[in-house]
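Exercise 7. Predict the joint structure of the components listed below.
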Amino acid sequence: MSVELRPATPGRNRTGPKRTAPRGASGRGWRVRLARLDMRVSPYLFISPFYVIFLIFGAFPLVFTIWVSLHDWELASGLRDFIGLGNYRELLGDEAFWRSVVNTIGIFFLSTVPQLLLALWVANLLNRRLRASTFYRIGIVAPMVTSTAAVAIVFGQLFARDYGMVNWLLGQIGVDPIDWQASRGWSWVAISAMVDWRWTGYNALIYLAAMQAIPKDLYEAAAIDGASRLRQFWQITVPMLRPTIIFTVIISTIGGLQLFTEPVLFGSGRMDGGPVHQYQTVTMYMFDNAFRSDHYGYGAAIAWMLFLMIIVFSLLNFLFVRRAGGGR
Amino acid sequence: MTAVLSRPSGTHRRPGRLRGLWDASPLTYITLIAALVLSVFPIYWMIIVATRSNEVVGSVPPPMTPGGNLGDNVGRLFDNPDAYFAKGLVNSAIVSSAVTVSTVFFASLAGFAFAKLRFRGKNALLLVIIATMMIPVQMGIIPLYMIMVRLGWQNTLQAVIVPFLVTGFGVFMMRQYADQAVPDELIEAARVDGCTTFGIYWRVVLPALRPAAGVLGLFTFMQTWNEFMWPLAVLNPENPTVQLSINNLANAYFKDYTLMFAGTTLAILPLLIVFILFGRQIIGGIMEGAIKA
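Solution:
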């Protein structure tokens, strides 16, 4: 690396004497030294803000979470007892925790699978030759620029049991009103609907960008061979999009397993996720234990379990998509 | 069939049945319009309710046109003792602006260094940045809160600003852009003219990075404006960001929908304005992979 530095320095010296020739030799040496210092130190100065911020507010908290999780740690009382793996042992037998895990995974699947399939479909349509294509693109990403909390409140009203528009629409086709809050499955559906609504357009645009990079000749060749559009989609588009699909699946996994704002506001700002915790996610359970009940040690243990869950799920999804997309 | 002939050439080099390969059928348009309506309807509905009185809740069929109560609802919103709505708006504006300006500055500075300067350990340091992009940082929220307690920063705006002054994602994005947007000759020429490294950044690199810096700024602003969990943890309900203000409203026992919807409408208004002004840039940013969810 130091070798790379050198070619620049002679260049500097070559031009240096020309410009500073009228000045005294000592002044020139001072300026050259300063310039050299500038070249050597500036890059590190320029990149250091990120590392400083990340070390203090990103990396340290993440690692320190492990330490906190090994304690009975309360802030109000100042209690801080080392209990080793006690929190984790308790967590393994904690029914409420496992319920939140099931809720999180259930909502994750309900929100991710339809979202990515819909996004693929919409992207495929947007990839046709369209009039006013920008108009559609802007329209479908509009949900992404709303605020999550605001959307959750609006959807909470749309999915209200009495007077909610969704139930009213269902009533038009003869379906009895659904109590979206009370039932575990239906509350997952309502929350997933918010997530789907928000992110489908975003993913569609990502897929569209990748689709536009696929050589058109492939489709023309397939069409000459008599492949239908549907077949072209599954045998050309989807395999060619595999890296992009993996990217969106990983991003959705990381985001989806940390789901917090939507279910919190669906429950009017409460952390319990309904009377029988039917839609309490792991992040809500962590937040509730730490910031509402002052059990920071236990909360930290939940945070680490969630972190592990995210890693495991990202890997599983990565392997799954790679395998599924690989069948040519 | 004859219409096809008048289309611009180049897209159709081959004759016969391939003509229709990329054409949109009426069904394509119908589906896209349905997708569009689904995308926009909840936003539209929010605005409708915000302009009406509470009688709309439960009226059958639901009203689809704006009413005349927006001023009244907004007035009640600012008078509401639990929401601290004005304060929330001001706080959000301060926090989002500060985080945006600082992220764009530090990210472009570091991105420039990674793309154009030579220094020892560059590749390894860049790798660290890429790795941090995959880490769900909010998992460290508990110690982060403890740091704030130690610093005496609970319930202060710096608690929601300082940890987000620059992101690894921003640095990486600016590096990618600087790499191809700033010619090496330009930097060499500035150096020959006696520019300091920071001078080069300020006079040569930053102007060249403007498009990417703009997109990064837009998304940083939207993301910060939207932040919910960390402000909820560290700020009190009396000193909220606007997202916490609407959460305060949602917490109320009696659901005053027109009030809540007036709140949510105002809470997303800055985002909507940004979106209307810069929609194309946002689309471009997403499609170039510049934006992370």
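Discussion. Residues 1 and 287 of chain A are 46 Å apart (CA to CA).
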